[in-house]
Amino acid sequence: MSEPIYGIPPDLIRGPEAEVLPMAGEANWGMAAFGVQTLRDQPFEPIKLGVVDTGVDASHPMLSNLRGAKDFTGSSRGPHDVNGHGTHCTGTVAGINPAMGVADAFPVYHGKGLGDGGSGGNGLISAMHWCIEQGCEILSCSWGGGGRSATWEAEFQMVIDAGVWLIFAGGNSGPNTPDTDWPGRSEKLINVAALNSDFTPASFSSAGDKIDTSGPGVGIWSSRTGGGYQQMSGTSMATPFIAGLLGRYRACLKAAKLPIPGTFELRKMLFSDSTDTHTPGDDRRTGPGWLTPLLLSLNLTPDPAPLEG
Amino acid sequence: MRLYSLVAAILVAATIPAADPPKIKSSGPVAPGGFADLTVDVPKSASVVWRISPQPVQKAANLPPGRLIFGGEQNKTYTVTAIVIDFDAKTVTDTDYSVVFGKAPPVVVEPPKQTGLYFLVVRPDGPATAQFTKVMGDPAWNTLRKAGHLVKDFGVTDAAKWTPAPDTLPAVVTLLEANGQSKVVRAAIPMPTTSAAILDLPKGVSP
User: Fold this and answer.
1) A284 exposed, middle or buried (CB, 10 Å; 0-12, 13-18, 19+)?
2) What is the distance between the alpha carbons of residues A217 and A240, in angstroms, rounded to a whole number?
């Protein structure tokens, strides 16, 4: 059986770059628009987060919380990111700059499973396993596109059985696609669509029957390989935002000594803790809507006691 | 030797005139398990005989003549008499003093645990509407939390554990938790949409 090839969703849009800060607007607009601070205000116990992508620029000052990186592609550059995609995603998940890193300063690991050109095969699975061995509880995976694979489904099942949440990009093929990329549309994973800053679906965000939630995906500032910052757009950018947000949420659940839901419970929760946008209900562009930190934070209050009698 | 002195002192006391009674000073109230610590001013030429009634549980030995330390049973009153015999002045004075050994602190019976009110916000199943999220973001909810109340939203299906489906959604059902159980203290009312109305939620609810 041939090895499936996955890659950065096509049509990733790379925007302006900034060598140094400050410039105007170098913040992920989702921080304020989504109200990330609501979750930041809750008590939390930081957890380890993983990113499986094109490698990472470990010398970037925004990624001083990077605890480890490893190459699974055979790249001559090792885990270093020459592509830029992996460094950008890692910064959004957990970069120490709170204007751009959602789970800012949480310990983060990077498994390089996509080669320098942005595509990968079984190295992606090895990279996922390595992140989990490091103790990562959530993996951000901004890639997809290969065909459905029973072997990979079995791998995903093992990962979610271990209690790890897998967050995947839905793809950048636009509104007329029959479905989002695989493996994001697998029921074992969390599939993320991208939004504009006015909460409308991003033009490039793939349509599909199984979208679990949506995050900011257009004009997203984050760390640039080689230093400085860069704007990018894509479901690749919405995915690490959701991964970081869920990382914060999981860290809050731990601090509150509340149970950590499995993937299927999590998907149900995302459905009710997203705020509707686009068309009412679970639609093919944004799923249930945008993931709402405020509604996540309400889950941290224990349920009422059972009714008397 | 001491026994001889005591007998002699008592004999002398019987034969010499009395003077002003001495003042007994206490170190303060006696806590449960503690000791009474009493002193009386004694001229250099005088001796003191201490009497304690009823018999103390414990009594310190080898103290200076003007000092008495003893232990008693909890919640019992002891009468201490200090008889001061001044050989130079040829006076005998005595005074009584009551010592109450403290009661053990009462066993604190916790009142039924009450965490304030629990505002159960019931909304339609599925994603929240933008209007619902906006209202839930009102800082007035945090004011209620700081006042000791709890707030949580539920879809109507999940809320069925506590309330029948309200006629109008979203709605707020008010619960009171005590002893690990909840009771509905106010049935569903329409969800308030202004800060003032949110802050008014606890009003009119009698636990």
Assistant:
1) buried
2) 10
pTM (whole model) above 0.80: no
A278 included as an active-site residue = no
Enclosing H/E stretch for B4: helix B2-13
User: For A55-88, b where at least 16 C-beta lie within 10 A, e where not — what string?
Assistant: bbbbebebbebbebbbbbbebeeebbbbbbbbbb
Report DSSP state, residue A142. Answer: -
Give dist(CA A44, CA A249) in Å, integer.
Answer: 8
Whether A85 is catalytic is yes
Question: What DSSP letter does each residue of B70-85 carry, written as one string?
Answer: EE--TT-EEEEEEEEE
Start-to-end CA distance of chain A, whole Å, equals 61
Interface pTM (ipTM) of the complex? 0.89
- The closest CB to that of A305, out of B129, B132, B180, belongs to B180
Rg of chain B in Å (alpha carbons): 36
Chain A residue closest to B135 (CA)? A294
DSSP state for residue A222 in the 8-state scheme: E
List C-alpha distances in Å: B171 to A256, B105, B129, B158. 27, 47, 14, 14
Q: Which residue has the tokens 């504009």?
A: A196
Buried b (16+ CB within 10 A) or exposed e, B116-128: ebbbbbbbeebbb
For residue range A192-216, what is the model confidence (pLDDT) as tens digits? 999 999 999 999 999 999 999 999 9
Tracing tokens 């606890």 back to the chain, one arrives at B202
Strand partners, B187: none
B139 touches chain A (CB under 8 A): no
Is the Cβ–Cβ distance between A262 and A157 less than 8 Å? Answer: no
Give the C-alpha distances (Å, rounded to integers) separating B130 from A193, A267, A281: 18, 20, 12
CA distance A77 to A225: 13
Tokens 């009450």 — which residue? B114
pLDDT in tens, A95-104: 999 999 999 9
